[in-house]
Amino acid sequence: MDILPAADGVPLDTVLLRTFLEVVDSGSFATAAERLALTPSAVSGHIKRLEQMVGVDLLTRTTRHLALTQGGDTLYAYSRNILDLEREVRAKLRGAPLRGLLRVGASEDFAGTWLPQVLQRFRQRHPEATIDLKVGITADLLRQQERGRLDLVFGKQCSRVGKSGELLWEEPLVWAYAQHEPLDLDRPLPLAVFPDPCIYRESAIAALNKAGRAWRLVFESSSMAGCLSAASSGFAVTVIADSQRVEGLRLLGRKEGLPALPVARFYAFPRSDSPACADLIAAARRAGQQGRFSPRPLRA
Questions:
Q1: Which of the four CATH numbers 2.60.120.260, 3.30.420.10, 2.60.40.10, 1.10.10.10 does domain 3-93 have?
Q2: Which tens digits make up the pLDDT trace of 114-135?
Q3: What is the pTM of this model?
Q4: 3-state secondary structure the chain
Q5: Does residue 292 have a pLDDT over 50?
Q6: In Gene Ontology terms, what is one molecular function of this protein (predicted)?
Q7: In whole angstroms, what is the distance from residue 296 CA to residue 118 CA?
Q8: What CATH number belongs to 171-263?
Q9: Contact, 109 vs 241, CB < 8 A?
Q10: Where are the domain boundaries for CATH 3.40.190.10 in the chain?
Q11: What CA–CA distance (Å, rounded) separates 61 from 73?
Q12: CB 234 within 8 A of CB 178
């Protein structure tokens, strides 16, 4: 059993910490149990033991809702770092820097915005490693991974992606449009989106339909650069993660009669728990932390 000594001498069990993170990331005891191959009662028992160990309540629970307490919020951040460090230590102890090929898939927005920082960190650790990168839609990349063609996939979770991944961070989605172009608010909102399935597309359409706001699809592209070009030219409004804003775009919102959007959650989907995948995932998570993105989907 993996344990880490706490300040008062009571060890923190990393098995319990993993269960805690899975419950928070999935938002459900039942889903966490399925992902961990445990029973829901075993997951509940892990959380109770962890709460007894740290001496504070970690979650507030009702029949339909889970939320982190203040103590749970603190432990969540530390738990993620503890397990990342444990994984990093194990990878280092397994041998010398990697020299083989790592086959990576990444959604186009991830590849264009965050991947450079991730690769820079990874290369510092493994200067002789080789990466074969494929860029595409998350669902398509995961299908390639199931066929054994990819070792690791970085992407967004959307309703049609059934596979559960490791949560890296979450950040707000925003409406973006040309900085200096007028937008006719009396006409259906012109949309530029990724092809289906895409969490940006799903979130935009669901929010507009719920708000009763008329819209029409005028531009579709599997390229983030394409959607950004459509927005910055004034051809259409697009939806992006907040960190993807570029010069020449302005944010739209309540003033323009547009509804609030949910957060986007970015995940790593490893094919195996290899040292290479572990190091690349840790590098991605650190990039998210440096960008001050939130790693937790639960809100008190």
A1: 1.10.10.10
A2: 788 888 878 877 777 888 899 8
A3: 0.62
A4: CCEEECCCCCEEEHHHHHHHHHHHHHCCHHHHHHHHCCCHHHHHHHHHHHHHHHCCCCEEECCCCEEECHHHHHHHHHHHHHHHHHHHHHHHHCCCCCCCEEEEEEEHHHHHHCHHHHHHHHHHHCCCCEEEEEEECHHHHHHHHHCCCCCEEEEECCCCCCCCCEEEEEEEEEEEEECCCCCCCCCCEEEEECCCCCHHHHHHHHHHHHHCCCEEEEEECCCHHHHHHHHHCCCCEEEEEHHHCCCCEEEECHHHCCCCCCEEEEEEEECCCCHHHHHHHHHHHHHHHHCCCECCCCCC
A5: no
A6: DNA-binding transcription factor activity
A7: 20
A8: 3.40.190.10
A9: yes
A10: 101-168+264-290, 171-263
A11: 14
A12: yes
Residue intervals in the chain for CATH 1.10.10.10: 3-93
Superfamily the domain 101-168+264-290 falls into: Periplasmic binding protein-like II (3.40.190.10)
pLDDT of 9: 57
Predicted confidence (pLDDT) per residue in 37-86, tens digit: 888 899 999 999 999 888 899 998 776 678 889 898 888 878 877 876 77
